[in-house]
Design goal:
six-stranded mixed sheet, 15 strands, 23% helix
C-alpha cells in the first residue's frame, strides 16, 4: 500500500464561523484572519494505492461552479486535483473508488464535472462513489441550515450515473474492515453520519479527520465550528476521539489545516492538546 496527500486548492472561510463561540482573540493565535475576518484553509484529500485499487478520499470543491459562487470563498494557490494526481503519475480515469466522508460542497464538489454538452457527469468515469444510505438521505432531503452546503449538482448526478455504492451501516458507530480495506468511524455532530476513515499504514493508524477535526487549531474541545448541526454532540464525539487519539498514538490527517497535513495528540491537565504538527512526508516519507 502507498498513500499520498492530494492538494486540491486553498479557500477562505469566516473565522467566526469556523470557531463558533470561541473569541477571535483566542482562535487568531493559530489561524490569523485577513482584514475581512477570513482565514485560509486547505482542501486536502488522500489517495490510497492498494493492489488493484486506487482510492480517493474526498474530492475538494471542483471547478464547475459559477464565478460568483467561487468569489464567496476566495480560492487561491496553484494546487488542483488534476495537478496533484499528475505529479504522482496518475490520471482521474485511474481512480477505482471515490470515498466521500460527507456531501458538503467542499468535500464532494470535485466528484462531478460539466461536460462539453453542459451536462453534469462524474469526474471519475471508472470509479465507484461511496457514501452511506443515512447520510445520502440527509443530503438529498436537506434541512434549511445545511441546504446551501448540499448542492444538487454535486450529488444527484452520482446516483444517476449508476456508480453510487453505500457503506453498510454498523450496529455501533464503528465499521471494521470495509470492502475498501479500512475501518470507518461514523460521527453525527457536524452532519448526520459523516464517515471518518481509519487506515493501517506503515505500523501506524492514520485517521482522515474530515470535519470532525478540521485543523489542529480545533483541538481544544470548545473549538467547534458554527457550521456543525449538533455542536454539543460534536463536543462529545470529539472528546472521545481525541482521548483515544492520545491513548493510541493515532496520526491525524487534517483536511482543512492550512499549515500542516498531520498532527498527534497528547493528554494534559487541560484535556487533549496538540502534541506535534507536521507534514505527512515527515512521518511516512514521500
Amino acid at each position: 500500500m502507498k498513500i499520498y496527500p492530494i492538494e486540491t486548492g486553498k479557500f477562505k472561510l469566516d473565522g467566526g464561523a469556523m470557531f463558533g463561540v470561541v473569541p477571535k482573540s483566542l482562535w487568531q493565535r493559530t489561524n490569523p484572519a485577513d482584514e475581512n475576518n477570513m482565514c485560509s484553509w486547505s482542501m486536502r484529500c488522500l489517495l490510497i494505492e492498494d493492489r488493484d485499487k486506487l482510492i480517493l478520499i474526498d474530492t475538494g470543491m471542483g471547478n464547475k461552479q459559477s464565478e460568483k459562487f467561487f468569489s464567496f470563498y476566495y480560492l487561491h494557490g496553484d494546487d488542483s486535483l488534476d495537478k496533484s494526481l499528475n505529479k504522482l503519475g496518475f490520471h482521474r480515469d485511474d481512480i477505482t473508488d471515490v470515498f466521500l466522508t460527507h456531501l458538503h460542497f467542499d468535500h464532494c464538489g470535485g466528484s462531478i464535472e460539466m461536460n462539453k454538452d453542459g451536462k453534469y457527469v462524474p469526474a471519475f468515469k471508472n470509479a465507484h462513489f461511496w457514501s452511506n444510505e443515512a447520510h445520502w438521505k440527509w443530503a438529498t432531503e436537506p434541512n434549511p441550515r445545511e441546504k446551501a452546503s448540499f448542492l444538487k449538482e454535486n450529488i444527484f448526478p452520482i446516483e444517476e450515473s449508476g456508480q453510487l455504492k453505500h457503506i453498510a451501516m454498523p450496529q455501533t458507530d464503528y465499521k471494521e474492515n470495509t470492502s475498501l480495506g479500512f475501518d470507518v468511524l461514523f460521527v453525527n455532530g457536524h452532519t448526520d453520519k459523516q464517515m471518518v476513515p481509519h487506515i493501517q499504514y506503515k505500523g501506524k493508524t492514520l485517521v482522515f479527520c474530515a470535519d470532525l477535526l478540521p485543523s489542529s487549531g480545533h483541538i481544544p474541545l470548545p473549538y467547534v465550528m458554527g457550521y456543525d448541526t449538533r455542536p454539543l454532540l460534536t463536543l462529545e464525539e470529539k472528546s472521545k476521539f481525541l482521548h483515544r487519539a492520545a491513548d493510541e498514538d493515532l496520526i491525524l490527517f487534517l483536511e482543512h489545516d492550512y499549515y500542516h497535513s498531520c498532527c498527534t495528540i497528547k493528554h494534559t491537565e487541560k484535556g487533549p492538546r496538540l502534541d506535534e504538527a507536521f507534514q505527512f512526508e515527515e512521518m511516512f516519507g514521500s
